[in-house]
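Protein record

Derive tokens from sequence
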Amino acid sequence: MNNEAARVRVIRIGPLRIEGGHHVYVDDKEINLSPLERRLLLELVRRRGSICHRQDLGSVRYPSAAGEDEPCAAAAVHTRMKRLRMKLGHAGALLETVWGIGYRLTSQHSLRESVRGLD
């Protein structure tokens, strides 16, 4: 395996760790997220520290039963974020509600990104 293929992007925010955009861990315990929950979390990470408007998060697409990507209704974002927080446990506190606007990933924890080789 070449060296580039053996690297995976690791994002750490407090107790939260995301590896390769697919595996989410809290305190080294893997968390099982739905594709939509994972995409919402990744969008918040991508825009960390900035407010993500509910309407923008509502445009995050997810695979439907028919196999096509569909947008998450903006009204459903609240419910999805509540489930995401619950699944993340104490790390769910990183997801801040900005009342009447949307959500943001808090910057109260330092962010450390690293690239780690897989053996």
